[in-house]
Each structure stands twice: as C-alpha cells, then as structure tokens.
Write a structure and sequence with these properties.
Elements lengths: L44 E12 L2 E12 L3 E5 L6 H7 L10 E9 L2 E2 L7 H7 E4 L10 H11 L5 H14 L3 H4 L12 H14 L4 E5 L7 H14 L4 E5 L3 H7 L2 E6 L2 E7 H6 L4 H7 L5
Parallel strand pairs: 3-8, 3-9, 6-7, 7-8
Antiparallel strand pairs: 1-2, 1-4, 4-5, 9-10
Helix pairs in contact: 3-4, 3-6, 4-6, 6-7
Bound molecules: adenosine-5'-diphosphate (ADP) and magnesium ion.
C-alpha cells in the first residue's frame, strides 16, 4: 500500500485513517503499513520511512517501520528505553552511517527522494535534516563562533552575511536577548538551557528543513525545559520537527502526532490527543498510564 503514496503528495482524503483499522488484532500485523497522520488529509509529508529495518551487525533494532512525518508539525517518538527511538531518528539523516557494521533495509524518503541511494550528498542531507542531541554540545569557542560554525563550513563567506545569519538564528532560538551583549564570551559559560538553545541556533543557522531532536530537554531543569518546549512550538511554523522524548507529558504538550515504539516496532501512530486519550492499542494505554516503562 505504501507504493501509492509519494511523500510530497497531499494525503489521500479517502485513505483509511489509522483509527479506522481497529479490527486488526495485533500491532505486529500492522507492520509494513504506512502510518499516516490520520486527521490531516491536507498535510504534506516531508519525510517518510517505508518498511524500514535496521541492523547493528546481526542484531535487528528496527522492524518494518513505516512512518510519515508531516510538514510544519511536531512528531513525537515515545517508548521504553532501548525500543529504537534514537536509532530511528538517526536513520532520518543517515547519522547511523558512521557506526561500523550497521545496515539499513527499506526506504527513507525526503520529499519523495530516497536518501539511501548512492547519489545522495550526505553532507547536504544533514544540512537539510539537522539534529539536536540530548547533551548540549557547544564547541569551546565563543557564542558567536558556535552559531557561525556551520555557515563557515558551508561556505557562506561574507562577514556581514554571517553576522546577519547568526543574529537571525539566535533570535529564532529565543536566545538573542540573553546573549546579544556578550557574543564573544565563551559558550561554555552559558547555563545548560542556554547551551541547548545555542545548539538549536547552530542547527538553524544552516537553514535546515527538518530538525531531529533526541531528548533535547532531558538534561534540563523544569524552567529551561519549558523554554525549550515553547521554542519547539514556535519553530514548527517554519520547520518540520521530530522529537524523541521519554517524558510523556512533554510529548503531549509539544507534539501534533505521536508514534509509540516498542522493541523495535512501531505499535501505534496517531494524533497526539488520540494517543493520550483514546489509544487504539491496550499496550499503548499501559505505557502512557505508566504501567510499565
Ligand atoms: P532508544 O533511543 O529507544 O532508547 P536505541 O535506538 O538507542 O533506543 O537502541 C535500540 C536498540 O539498539 C537497543 O537494543 C540498543 O542496545 C541497540 N543499540 C543502540 N545503539 C547501538 C550501537 N551503537 N551498537 C549496537 N547496538 C546499539
Ligand atoms: Mg535514545
């Protein structure tokens, strides 16, 4: 069934919504089906995995993941530790390529183009599909240099242009007002929450289309977490965001759609309000109500 979908195509309003397949008995039987954002026939799909299998050597970490990520929205990936959330996220910009002995089967599409074919420029792919990690990882350089870094390696050379882009990115990352008077100060002197927003600014500077975030707030205190969540909410008007979180309240607060993973499989994918109020699978309900974790 996934063959009839192209990723940039508008979703077919006639297509069965995920919520319409309740009579299927087990989540496993759903593997291989394309999960569509159920409520939004007009949503444009920016990224999509189709029947994605992933292996660390002999060990299969992902089994037949088919998941469509809609433009200008936040898609949350939840599930118990070790279920494959980070592995899946890294498949979306080929970050797993750098781990020896790994192998991908199935497709990952960005605007309908398979990112795993030979002629894809991986550097350009990672510019288009940026990433923010759990641990903020600023370079031991100034605040300014941290944001300018990607611009320099991507050869946006004019100094005035760089300055403009750094300011724009810091503003977009809701950090400008806090750092504008000390752009030359070391990034390491910022608080944890500021450092994480700096890393988001660095990702934004090179003009990504999709932003992948792997537990971006899990090392932050509640106030810094709230700032990052507000930022994510703002960013989705310009970007397409996929976020891994083990914090279910966070998924409920920031995301439009939620994908629940378990043991390398996608159990259920639907609108976030549906997942958190009326999930289709018993096991999803058990997880979100904290019966296991
Ligand atoms: P999550 O992010 O949901 O906690 P991961 O994607 O990190 O899960 O891990 C999924 C599975 O893949 C786990 O069993 C984990 O041990 C394994 N795994 C993750 N990274 C590696 C790696 N670099 N090498 C081998 N196995 C790994
Ligand atoms: Mg992880």
């Amino acid at each position: 069934m996934s063959d009839e979908m192209t990723s940039t195509a508008e979703l077919d309003a006639e297509a069965p919504a995920l919520t319409d397949v309740d009579e299927r008995t087990s989540p496993v039987e759903r593997q291989g089906e394309t999960s569509k954002p159920a409520e939004a026939p007009e949503a444009v799909i920016r990224m999509e995995s189709r029947n994605l299998d992933f292996f660390y050597g002999e060990v299969q970490a992902l089994h037949g993941i088919s998941l469509a990520i809609a433009e200008n929205s936040v898609t949350a990936l939840i599930g118990p530790s070790g279920c494959g959330k980070s592995t899946f996220l890294r498949c979306l910009n080929r970050m797993n390529d750098i781990i020896p002995g790994t192998r991908v089967e199935g497709d990952v599409l960005l605007d309908g183009v398979d990112i795993y074919t030979g002629d894809v420029d991986v550097v350009d792919l990672r510019r288009r599909v940026g990433m923010v990690f759990q641990k903020s990882n600023p370079f031991p350089k100034s605040i300014f240099e941290n944001v300018a870094y990607g611009l320099k390696i991507n050869q946006v050379v004019r100094r005035s242009k760089i300055h403009e882009r750094v300011e724009k990115s810091l503003r977009e990352a809701a950090l400008w007002d806090e750092v504008k008077d000390r752009l030359d100060a070391p990034a390491m002197g910022l608080s944890g929450g500021q450092q994480q927003r700096l890393c988001i600014a660095r990702a934004l500077a090179i003009d990504p289309e999709v932003i992948l975030m792997d537990e971006p707030a899990s090392a932050l205190d509640p106030i810094a977490t709230q700032k990052v969540e507000e930022l994510i909410y703002q960013l989705k008007s310009h970007y397409t965001i996929a976020i891994v979180t083990h914090n279910m309240q966070q998924a409920a607060r920031v995301s439009d759609r939620t994908a629940f993973f378990m043991m390398g499989r996608l159990v259920e994918y639907d609108r976030t309000d549906k997942i958190f109020t009326n999930p289709g699978e018993k096991i999803t309900e058990d997880y979100i109500t904290g019966r296991f974790g």
